[in-house]
Design brief:
Helix content: 40-55%
Number of strands: 22
Oligomer: single chain
Number of helices: 28
Structural class: alpha+beta
Distance between the termini: 68 Å
Radius of gyration: 37 Å
């Protein structure tokens, strides 16, 4: 603590040192405990102990027990996928842990009749505290004395105009003093202050819901019920094929039984899809980062594609938060005591500059000064000044020749002589156009003796000009909003400002195209969520919106089954951004708002949003395409496993075969296809459409392999007598058939093939069949080059499989069409 410079003399002595110590010991100081709802252990546990990891890990262990490590390479996917998940959530945890609305610094308090500086955390309940220009309010308080204190509460309320505060007014932590100063008494501290309550709500961890992950998890849950009993049955059936458990154990054939069972189980799990989804999200995030868009939660990339409702915060999104001087409208009106001739525009502009050039001009004053400085105006003669007062609503100067007054038009016109209905109409028209309108009045002659001590507006003053200022609309706002309209995304502007002003800005940026935007004062909104949802369907612009109402608006849109994105930059937006399906913060936003948003537009450019949504659509549409590839493998693996159990035959291929074929016809091609350009809008029913493709193809591949395995041993006489060698040859043929079927499926997924997609299919087909000829590859993956009798068997099997494939593609969809789940499936 240190004693500070002398402030204005006051009668109050403040708290004594003893009282401060007692309050601090009672926990009534300004300390806020920082914690999030997710510990490191929770994050690791949630990502390691998943259903997917459990199935794959168990399968990998079973294979390793047999000693065949080559057949266990599929287990590496656990490490990669888990690592991505943990890193993503740790990043979110670090962001949340740093979350703080209040800026920690030293503050001046009045104790024992003295002014001393204390740290933010040492402020106690009941302290008398000085709030000076430029300082952030550290705790909720009530004003005891004020010397023109003006606060910026936009981070809390969304209201972009600064607010003058009088004695007895409440002020809230998180607001910032723009001008003047005040002595205040602390009424709420620490976790009980307004800013701390907002922070606490914002810090609650919320996982982004992903349709892709939900679909994959649905499949995994279904497969869990199937995998465990099927795995047991496969092991039992494979042991039976070699003469029973006694023979299997004595000869070591149990190893082959376990490996065969795992081949069926691993094939049923779309392990590559889980990994590819995570990688695709990460790559989309990297691409967006190159355009100054930070994706803080990878799953939110997918949410971008599903957004059909975008709530825009006006200040910082549609406008850039700055005010500019637009125009000066000379009125050409002269009063009876103002007979010096016509109004000189240069004199009016000079007076306007001097009127705005107070010690601490507010945002409007700064905009006027900036605009006039660009026009070459500088300090003029000011012999006396009456500064702006929120009570008077006007300011005034005396320049040695005349008294000039500037302020709220309706206030000034009500206090001067004459009928000014026409001017008031002009003012209202300009205000309805989104302008902030000020009136300049003048009266020639000397200022009265009590001009500065007892300021009054001279009734003989003459209105000479209207000053129009407006918030600066982002240059990219109109074009960006037009893009969203074309894409079927409903945009609404939600602001703490006057609804008429916000409605005018909405009109300027053509928020609703050619239609007039419908605006409403949020104070008239119903509290009931159901009623609110109905009201919102007919509203485009909402003004005077409170932070809790923003959150309620998002909840109401959710009740209407909308996928909601919310943009913002103030603390008042944090709760709504967190509640939305997709929270988007501007780069210049408050730290609390950026911390809870899934996406941050680093350079605060609204025009990046189409890129963000387009990238999300690309991910969703492409992942739907490649998910079909992975689920084909799930379907045919389940069908083959079931066929093996029912017919008691050896499993038709090895785990390494499915690894090889899956890598070349599913994994690597899917990775490339997932990165291809795709602007298709999101269509509900992801899982249905994927299954509508995967089931027919999977059944075709499964029946092809089963047909080959059943028929070839009957009609073909192998040139080897050993049953083990015959099985190896049959598995070699099936590996080739599986590769051929995989290429067929890839060709269907990659359509149209008259572009680079066709070259992609041919390339992987060549690599796949060419790999059989490369000895190290063939040895590792147990591939066999067909020659002689095996070549004939392979040819017959390929023709048979092609016929089965074509028949299944025609018949299975017809059978599916009578299944209730698939009746209303929408095709992509």
């Amino acid at each position: 603590m240190s004693e500070s410079r002398t402030m204005p003399l006051i009668e109050e002595t403040g708290l004594t040192q003893g009282e401060v110590i007692a309050l601090r010991e009672s926990g009534l100081d300004n300390v806020v405990k920082a914690s999030t709802s997710r510990s490191l252990i929770d994050i690791v546990r949630a990502n390691v102990f998943t259903l997917f990891n459990g199935i794959i890990f168990a399968a990998m262990v079973m294979v390793l027990i047999t000693g065949s490590w080559r057949d266990a390479v599929f287990g590496m996917i656990i490490i990669i996928n888990t690592g991505i998940g943990i890193c993503t959530e740790l990043k979110a945890k670090r962001t949340l842990d740093k979350l703080s609305i209040l800026v920690a610094s030293d503050y001046l308090v009045h104790r024992d009749g003295k002014d001393i500086e204390v740290p933010h955390n040492d402020i106690v309940l009941g302290d008398l505290m000085w709030i000076r220009s430029g300082e952030q309010v550290p705790a909720d308080a009530q004003i005891v004395h004020t010397w023109g204190l003006e606060l910026d509460e936009s981070m809390l309320t969304g209201e972009s105009r600064t607010v003058r505060k009088g004695e007895g007014c409440d002020i809230f932590s998180g607001s910032t003093a723009i001008s003047g100063m005040a002595l205040v008494k602390v009424t709420a501290i620490g976790e009980h202050s307004y800013a701390a309550k907002l922070t606490a709500q914002a810090k609650v961890y919320k996982k982004t819901v992903s349709d892709l992950n939900k679909g994959i998890n649905t499949i995994l849950k279904f497969m869990t019920f199937l995998v465990v009993p099927l795995c047991v049955l496969l092991i039992w059936s494979q042991a039976r094929t070699v003469g029973g458990w006694n023979v299997a154990i004595s000869t070591g054939e149990w190893r082959s039984a376990v490996i065969s069972a795992v081949a069926g189980v691993v094939g049923m799990i779309p392990e590559g899809l889980v990994l590819l989804t995570s990688l695709n999200f990460a790559l989309a995030a990297i691409r967006l980062a190159r355009k100054n868009t930070l994706v803080q939660e990878l799953e939110s990339v997918e949410t971008l594609a599903r957004v059909d409702c975008l709530n825009l915060d006006k200040t910082g999104t549609v406008t850039d938060g700055t005010i500019r001087l637009d125009s000066l409208e000379l009125l050409g009106v002269r009063g009876p005591d103002d007979m010096r001739g016509t109004v000189n525009e240069h004199d009016v502009r000079q007076a306007l500059f001097d009127l705005s050039n107070e010690g601490q001009p507010n945002g409007t004053g700064q905009a006027i000064l900036s605009g006039l400085r660009e026009q070459g105006f500088a300090d003029g003669t000011v012999e006396a000044r009456v500064p702006f007062s929120s009570a008077r609503k006007w300011s005034s100067i005396y320049d040695g020749n005349a008294v000039w007054t500037m302020g709220a038009p309706e206030v000034i016109l009500s206090q001067i002589n004459g009928d000014h209905a026409d001017i008031l109409k002009q003012v209202n028209d300009l205000a309805n156009d989104g302008n902030r309108v000020l009136l300049v009045a003048r009266i020639y002659g000397a200022a009265p003796d009590d001009y500065e001590t007892d300021p009054k507006l001279n009734p003989a003053s003459c209105p000479v000009a209207l000053v129009c200022c407006s918030e600066h609309i982002r240059a990219d706002a109109e074009e960006t909003l037009a893009w969203f309209r074309e894409q079927g995304v409903r945009c609404r502007i939600i602001s703490g400002d006057n609804p008429v002003t916000v409605g005018a800005i909405a009109r300027k940026v053509h928020l609703t195209g050619e239609h007039e935007p419908r605006f409403m004062d949020a104070r008239e909104l119903p509290a009931d969520i159901t009623e609110l949802a109905q009201v919102l369907e007919n509203v485009d612009v909402l003004g005077r919106v409170l932070p809790d109402q923003k959150k309620a608006i998002v909840e109401a849109l959710h009740a209407g089954e909308h996928v909601v994105a919310m943009t913002g930059d103030g603390v008042n937006d944090a709760l709504a951004i967190k509640e939305a399906d997709l929270g988007i913060a501007m780069g210049n936003a408050a730290p609390a708002t950026k911390a809870v948003a899934q996406v941050v537009l680093v350079d605060s450019k609204f025009s990046h949003l189409p890129d963000v949504v387009a990238r999300g659509r690309q991910v969703m549409a492409n992942m739907e395409r490649v998910a079909s590839l992975f689920l084909v493998k799930t379907v045919y693996s389940a069908l083959i496993s079931l066929g093996v159990v029912l017919t008691q035959m050896p499993f038709p291929y090895l785990p390494r075969h499915i690894t090889y074929v899956g890598g070349l016809t599913i994994g690597m091609p899917a990775f490339i296809l997932a990165l291809a350009p795709n602007t298709r809008r999101y269509i509900p029913g992801f899982l249905k459409r994927v299954l509508h493709f995967a089931v027919p193809c999977g059944v075709a591949v499964g029946l092809s392999i089963l047909s080959t395995s059943w028929l070839l041993p009957i009609f073909m006489k192998w040139n080897v007598q050993d049953s083990g060698a015959q099985l190896a040859m049959l598995r070699g043929v099936n590996a080739i058939i599986l590769l051929m079927m995989g290429v067929f499926v890839l060709a269907r997924v990659a359509k149209p093939l008259h572009s680079w997609r066709g070259i992609l299919v041919l390339a992987f087909a060549a690599i796949g069949f060419g790999g059989v000829l490369v000895k190290p590859v063939a040895n590792f993956f147990a591939l066999v080059v067909p020659t002689g009798q095996m070549l004939a068997a392979t040819t017959v099997a390929m023709v048979l499989s092609a016929l089965v494939f074509l028949v299944c593609l025609r018949l299975v969809p017809k059978i599916l069409s009578i299944v209730p789940y698939f009746k209303k499936t929408r095709q992509s």
